Amino acid sequence: MASNNEAVAEVQMVAFKLEKEEFAVDIHQVREVLKMTRVTPLPQSAHYIEGLINLRGEVIPVVDLRKRFELPEGERSEQTRIIIVEIQDSNVGLIVDSVTEVLRFSSSAIQPPPARIAGTRTDLIKGVGKVEERLLIILNLERILTTEEIISLEEVTLSK
Amino acid sequence: MLGKRILITDDTAFMRMTLRNILVKNGYEIAGEAEDGVQAVEQYMIIKPDLVTMDITMPNMDGITAIKKIMEKDPDAKIVVVSAMGQKALVIEALNSGAKDFIVKPFQPDRIVEALQKVIG
Amino acid sequence: MEEYRDLFLAEAQEYLQNMTDCMLELEKDPTATENLTEMFRAAHSLKGMSGTMGYELIMKLTHEMENLLDKLRSGEISVGTDLVNLLFEAVDLVQVMINDLDNQKNFSSDVQALEKKLQGWYESAGKEESRPLEKGIDGENSPEDQETERDAAAKDAFIKAELNEFEKEMLKDAASRGENSYHINVWLREGSLLKSVRSYMVYKVIEKHGEIVKTYPSMQAMEEEKFDRDFSFLLLGKPDLDINELEKSIKGIAEVEKVIISSLFLEDGSEKAAPPLQEAQGTAGANAREKRNGDQGGAVSSQVAKKVQPSLNRSSEKTVRVETAKLDALVNLVGELIINRTRVLELGKQFKNENLEASLEQLERVTTELQSAVMTLRMVPIKQVFDRFPRMVRDLSQERGKEIELIISGEETELDRTIVNQIGDPLVHLLRNAVDHGIEDEEERKRKGKRPVGTIHLEAHHEGSHVVVSVEDDGSGIDPEKVKEKAVQKNIITREEAEVMEADEAIRLIFRSGFSTSAEVTDISGRGVGMDVVKTSIEALNGTVEVKSEQGKGSKFILRLPLTLAIIRTLMVRAGEEVFAIPIEAIRENLFVEPHEIRTIQQGKVITLREEVLPLYCLKEELGMGFFEEQEVYPVVVVQAGEKKAGFIVDELMGQQEVVIKSLSSFINDIKGVAGATVLGDGRVTLILDIAGLLEDGRVNVGKENFNH
What we know:
The structure holds three protein chains of three kinds. Chain A contains two helices and eleven strands. By secondary structure, chain A is mainly β. In chain A, the strands form two sheets. Chain A has a six-stranded mixed sheet with strand order 8-1-2-11-10-9, with no helix packed on it. In chain A, strands 3-6-7-5-4 form a five-stranded mixed sheet. In chain A, strand 6 and strand 7 form a beta hairpin. Chain A is globular and about 40 Å long. The two termini of chain A are about 25 Å apart. Mean pLDDT of chain A is about 85; it is low at about 1-5. Helices cover about 45% and strands about 20% of the residues of chain B. The longest helix of chain B is centred in the first third of the chain and has 13 residues, at about 15-25. Chain C folds into five domains: about 1-135, HPT domain (Four Helix Bundle (Hemerythrin (Met), subunit A)), CATH 1.20.120; about 145-270, Alpha-Beta Plaits, CATH 3.30.70; about 325-375; about 380-560, Heat Shock Protein 90 (2-Layer Sandwich), CATH 3.30.565; about 565-700, CATH 2.40.50.180. Chain C contains 23 helices and 22 strands. By secondary structure, chain C is of the alpha+beta class. Residues about 125-150, about 265-315, about 520-530 and about 700-709 of chain C have low confidence and may be disordered. In chain C, about 40% of the residues are buried. In chain C, strand 10 and strand 11 (about 555-560) form a beta hairpin. The interface between B and C is medium-sized, with 15 and 11 residues.
């Protein structure tokens, strides 16, 4: 992601929250952000696959990121959003607690994840972006959505 | 095809006779015979045939000149030029001068009939 | 040359197929000499076409084939299996060369070798030497009428290939202004003298009707009479051009035997010339083929009279070639339109306005017709798949030392393009299976009192909204005991299960994965095959496969495939809070069942339906979305997949609806029991159930995941 900014000095990211943790996704990967909507459940699927939604005729699977990271099911609030991202030529929806804002990072503000921290799956993290006092984790969505392993939230955050 | 009148032009009597036989056998009427271009042009205006067969190489006036002259007098004239093998360029010139089609010597009856049919029916 | 290669390939392919078919016929009946004539013509045309396109090697090879075939048809040599095998070898080599047009030189030694062999055959027949290969379009053997359209098309391709970009642009430009381009192919009668003058006369006539952009051969070559009997012009016609008039005036020139005029399209390089504007003459070849097909007797008394489509008779259909991508886009759009229509209709109901209702009804009618029309665009005859089988079965049966007759019927049956593409491999497997294991060898058949020649019947027909394809053999049938024994050995079932298993169910064991090992199954392509793969491939197409077999008599494999993939009629049912769509084809009937009618036995609930015992399942439970609840009356949907029948208890029957099947994203793995998803008028995603998947293995139990809502 951060490789985009060889020529461009800035990277735009969509920031979202799960519990108290803040994450970011490259805006180029984000197709759309929707308000929470009715999801059709899919039998015989992993527990974190919430089901299917219809986006203008396209049937898109939706993943509850809270459940993906083994968090208890959250209360769906006004803030809850579905971020539609493009992964490996497919569209997937991610249910998040809230989408905070679209941030601009200068290329220097994005760092690769720290080498080895106990309890962190750095292979699931693409990088860390710094904005004022906040640190946003840039997740490796491809890995997270395609691997079958169980991942807990602590493993993808830096604050312990 | 019935009763169409043809003017045959050729400097050789033998040729004229051969052609005459073929045409008569196929239902055409021979309106006249000419030995050279001059005669052809003269006779044309008198007989007013439905079609003229014109040999290319003739004394006094050659076929192509005769064609031109006849076309001048009657733009609707139907002339079929008769040539020997190897006279390609002349045939083309004849066509350009107004001839409607061509026949090649030695004669092949069905070819002649076909050509005539296409021109005057 | 690139763009017009497709045309050459398509035509060459047809000729090769034709030759193959003829050779098989001939082998069966060496007296059917019309096949030789047809093959001779095919070889001749191939020679002409490849010569025109510049494929020297193919031309040389087909020339030798033509020579040999000439001797055959004149009776100087007689047909025999060796000769047929040699000709097959030649056909195969041509096929290979056609598949690899860019690397022709790789084949030169193969061609040489085969040439020698072919020459060896007819030289041994003595008499004259072969006619030498002539440069130019045709050999001295004048082509029959039937071929001229083919050759014209190839030359047409050649002329177009000679156009440079500027010329193509100019023609395209002109076309948009109503000035169309035409390919005019003119034939002089045999033995015409002063041909160049004739061509000149033709030239002058055509010139009056527009601008002559290109000629074939070149003007100079025409003047020098460097052509056999025909030549072609590419004409950019004037806007008021009258084709009939043009044709008449060309025909009005003496010694002109035939004129073929065809339109030229130059759009986006994807369209080729439309077929000749003239009607093709009745083809002697087609008649020969019909006769052949009619003569096809056979032990199978259920031989249905075939509707013969002579493969070379294309000119009577007006066709256009369209890129498949464009077609798919169109199909998708129509699918979307249908969904939106449903929504509009729903909204319209709220207004209770007569005019609106009438218009909406009209809208519904028109869009339904549009949908049908578009769906048929994707349909192709199953013949494409069937065509390669006679040869395959012949070769395979020769290999195995068995004599087998393959009877094909219903090859004109049409199905969706995608299905046709996918159905080939399963059918290959079923046919190989029939040859290898089904049909017994001659000795055994004689002992059993059967005809020494085994029969395999490959058949296709429409049945409602399905296509049924079956492979039936009169071989030894499947022995349920043997199957059971093998299944036990492979740990697919236990011995106890085997003991109580009925014959029907036992036979179906062959479809279980693990039943055939790769060591036993031979496949040229090296891919793993087995009956289980056949089953999963067919099911992936929303189809089913069944087998009926009788020991000693034979077996029949029946494939049922949907006509189209994209839109199906369904019954909407509610189970719990969710709505599901059940494809209508899977539904036998709907019932309302009262509690006292339900009996509980060991395996679960059942009811008795007209002397049949029907297992009952609660759909909600089976999908892991709820639990069975006591009601006063239970709506039940009776479904069937293959031989299995069951009733699903639902909460509500909601009515029929046509839905567009949306594929589930690749992100989600295949879910058993779910065929796909659809979007309803209200925008909701609804799952389409896969009944075959739900009823698999005689027991339903799909969703173990609990549903949380």
